[in-house]
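Morning!

As promised:
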Amino acid sequence: MKAVARAPGKIILTGEHFVVYGSFAVASSINLYVTVTAEFHKEPYIVSEDLGVKEPIDQTSHVLRPIAISIAPLIKGEKVMLKIKSDIPLSAGLGSSAAVSVAAVKAIDELLELKMESEEIYEAAMRGERLIHGKPSGIDVAISLFGGFLLFKKGYRKQICLGKNMEFMLCNTGLRRSTGQMIKRVASFASKNYKLFSKMVEVASIISVNLVRYLGRGEMERIGYLMNMNHEMLRMIGASNSILDRIVYGSRPLCFGSKLTGAGGGGCTIHLIKRERAKDLNSFLSKTCYKSIFVKAGVEGVKSWKIRN
Ligand code: PMV
């Protein structure tokens, strides 16, 4: 018997970085997934097909250690093998590490029939995230676990109902970066500009709360405007760079709104699609990006099932 769990990646519409300092943020799940298969096995290994890594669960390197740390207290001496497969690009701001941890915990939950509550899965996956980022806000884990669109703040989350279907293009610059490094860069800005930064955290919160209202009414122009505004704030704190800016500003006439998503410094940008300009946007992004794709937002959160041999 095998247990399979599938967890989605995410985009952040507003509030990344500021959320680490207590602001509200808005995120959505996307239809790029990590799939983890767990089975009883005499060799307790974690195998990542994409990374070409196979390591014993109790002797993982830094690459697989967050997963081992998330699941170790749950296994309690059982010998299990985990196989990970992902179509979420790594270090690109799409929440791949959180999705792996969430899917790994959920696959173990399914295999061992632990009947874990969502909060327990959240806490287990956060163990892995803390190892990677130090003090993650938890937004990546929450969105991968619950799916949909979420208004999120540390210790708080609420599902958002959409007034209109929303479509996004995603542009991957192909520049990999570390979330931890970007968080440090922002921390340095925050400590040098304490008063200004505290106000920016408040503004990021207001932007996110207003965004919820516009999402509910399906007011695309206003949603796009708040995404654009959020990009400017991310630029001010050092999360953008000239490559991201070129893509974001170049695409502006072709969509409702565009911004970097996630920690920045590379990774991905998101673009809220305007139907009548979708073709032009697609051709701009396919020329400018390492890879551009259409993503479906607001997909359901982690799911698991059993496969009987
Ligand atoms: O790791 P990324 O690029 O998906 O970014 C996560 C969002 C941050 O706000 C930068 C960090 C966090 O923990 O919220």
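The chain is about 40% helix and 25% strand.

Hope this helps with the figure draft.
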